[in-house]
Amino acid sequence: MSDTEAPFRISISDNELESLKQKLALTRFPDELEDAGRDYGAPLADIQRLTNYWKDTYLSKWKEHEAKLNEDLPQFTRDIEVDGFGTLNIHYVHKKSTVVDAVPLLFVHGWPGSFLEARKILPLLVENSPEHPSFHVVAVSLPGYGFSEAPKKKGFGSTQYAEVGHKLMLALGYNEYVTQGGDWGALITRRIAQLYGPKHSKAWHTNMPLGEAPHPTRRPWLLLTYLLFKLSPKEKAGLERTQWFQEKGIGYFKEQSTQPQTLGYSLADSPVGLLGWIYEKLVNWTDEYPWTDDEVLTWISIYWFSRAGPAASVRIYYEVNNLTPEGFARNIETPIPVGHSYFPKELAILPRSWIKAANPTLVFESEHEGGGHFAAYERPEALVGDLRKMFGKGGPAFGVVPGKTGF
Amino acid sequence: MSQALSSEKPFQISISSFDLTLLRQKLELVRLAHEVDNAGWDYGVPLSEIKRLTAYWKDTFLPKWHEHEAKLNEDLGPQFTRDIEVDGGFGKINVHYVHRKSAVVDAVPLLFVHGWPGSVLEVKKILPLLVEESPDYPSFHVVAISLPGYGFSEAPQRKGFEAVQLAEVCNKLMLSLGYTEYVTQGGDVGSLVTRKIAQIYGPKHSKAWHTNSPIGEPPHPIKRPLLLLSHLLFSYSPSEKAGLERTMQFQKQGSGYFAQQSTQPQTLGYSLDDSPVGLLAWIYEKLVNWSDGYSWTDDEVLTWISVYWFSKSGPAASTRIYYELAQAYPEGIFSGVQTPIPVGHSYFPQDIFVVPRRWIRAANPTLVFESDHESGGHFAAHERPEELVSDLRKMFGKGGPCYGVVPGKTGYVVDVIKFGGRD
């Protein structure tokens, strides 16, 4: 395979910026019920404030934000051949540690995330220290996200996403590597572990640990509430969170896994529509993370200006739902060591016994007092702390990549 | 409410040039989504459809809006608005409605209630048929309401405005128009609302109700044991099996909108209010998937969408009822179907919820009329106007199970000779 790698800098054209500005100027807002709070969805006051800020301030400073992004995240693109799907041009962040034998680590984002989620953990992971291991970090933009091309054909599922991540690592000379992933990244790195471990993928870490429900009933969580009196306060809170997500937080999932194109027209055409759709998750899925307007708009901009457009990003729900209708929570086992970080505001907080039963190769666990779904962004030190413990000297996955101990 | 105190005002749809300009500007800036190869309808509305409709909207339909608007006003006939006070702190809601009286003085007063993504537009085709005078079938005085949050009615401002409140608005509207006793016809959300009207205001005011969205609950070992027994002993007909399959397909593939609108309608609302093409796709998908091969013209589709785009409270407001219903009825809207008044059903095979007849009958003990159709889908009044009206004529006509259900308003010209009248 010839090397098609090219350095990449985010460089949004003036045309695109102007078009966005024009659309923002034409925004038509809905009304809102009195005292709606967050009950009905993203609050109008937040969305109006963000929209006006976007139009009046953020956009005019876009070049600064863009420059900072490019500075923080060294990026590249290269072609990756995917069996049955042809060549896709893939965008990724790649930063090597000064430690020559750093551990090669592939970081995989999810939805509505992006390569941006590696921003804070990147400097910590590559950092040189005798106290903890260092990593060479690759943060891929999944096909259909960020500045990667989207697949053109139907049926691009977790196997294909895994293939892209794996082939990227090989192309970069990392024949053996470890992975970290949450959300779709958890599913994809699990798949990488199953398909390419232990030969290439040597260990994987996730901040979205899963297990299987003992009996699939119509209301499994309702069944569980009867067990409440046996559970610790933490486990009770976890179940309540899980129940909330299943009952109130799953609309996007149902739409995206059945009619992604229908939804896609809104996301591609309406900046405020896209903002509302994603911002709701940024707030509901995090542990009261104090988002600044700049942070939110940078996050949304990556979707708005993405190479394939925002509609492409939601197709993964349709494809995976079609290919694996039994859902995420099956076929969890992998042949390689796995590590878990447990954050209390994750979306599915299952009893530890279920998680352990589904993960026989579980070698590392770390429990946190705060933090939610976007662990790398909300709690970068905590997440990196966990990776350092898992892969560091005395850790259960120390030296799992031969010759690349991180020291 | 006496005429003197009534807040009724005549109404004509008249979209401002500001609104028309804004729409045109947005259509000029449309950014379309890409699509995978050979997607067909699998992933949602095909790009080719959206491209065509969007271009037509911008280049042809919108520039001719005044013609479409005039036609709409002509088709709907006399429209009005009036204030309705709603109990429970909701205050006054200004409600829009169509009101067309038959020439037959003693026509049956009928309230037609639309659903989502429908509107008062759905009464357009059945209106002339319902008011038509004939010795062979009954006539109706027709009131077609724009539910609060839809069309040119105001939307509620406070939380908790659910089926009970919608029923209250409808009943008060009929009373204010002098129809102390009336019958109703409704599909989709309209079916729920007219069911509620039947339960709360029947038999005193609502005398009978007809729906083209009949429902019933599945067999259950404890709640519906006899139905379970029948389910185990007797098989379902081929059409019932097909209906069940269609229903399950809908649940599996077609209920994403329902999940979103029942849980986070405001989040969705930002898209629907801001993006004409987003709104178009969101609704057009239903117009196609829920109807039975109906040949929608681009003008029909865009007129339908326009009622949403130009609605008084905006499209987002229309989706909130799903949230309110989910809150008010955690056990679901498919239970508690029973009413104290006669009900009639029209069964259209390509509707989205088509369950075995015995389930429906078990849930509707006051079922007095049933009519099966070979074709037709969810939007019966729009797709199959003659059939729907024919059903109503059979149900309420001479010899029908609901003939004379509204005392003194049988739907026919009174035969003076029979009374041995003078001259």
UniProtKB/TrEMBL annotation, chain A:
Domain Epoxide hydrolase N-terminal, first and last residues per copy: 6-117
Catalytic-site annotation from UniProt: D183 (nucleophile), Y317 (proton donor), H373 (proton acceptor)
Keyword Hydrolase among record annotations: yes
Keyword Hydrolase: yes
Any one GO molecular-function label of the UniProt entry: epoxide hydrolase activity
Family in the record: Belongs to the peptidase S33 family.
PANTHER family: EPOXIDE HYDROLASE, EPOXIDE HYDROLASE 1-RELATED
Protein name per UniProt: Epoxide hydrolase N-terminal domain-containing protein
Species of the source: Candolleomyces eurysporus
UniProtKB/TrEMBL annotation, chain B:
Pfam family, one: EHN
InterPro entries membership: AB_hydrolase_fold (IPR029058), Epox_hydrolase-like (IPR000639), Epoxide_hydro_N (IPR010497), Epoxide_hydrolase (IPR016292)
Active site: D188, Y322, H378
Domain Epoxide hydrolase N-terminal residues, every copy: 9-123
Molecular function GO labels: epoxide hydrolase activity
GO biological processes: epoxide metabolic process
Keyword Hydrolase: yes
Keyword annotations from UniProtKB, A to Z: Aromatic hydrocarbons catabolism, Hydrolase
Entry superkingdom: Eukaryota
Keyword Protease appears in the UniProt entry: no
Family: Belongs to the peptidase S33 family.
Protein's recorded name: Epoxide hydrolase N-terminal domain-containing protein
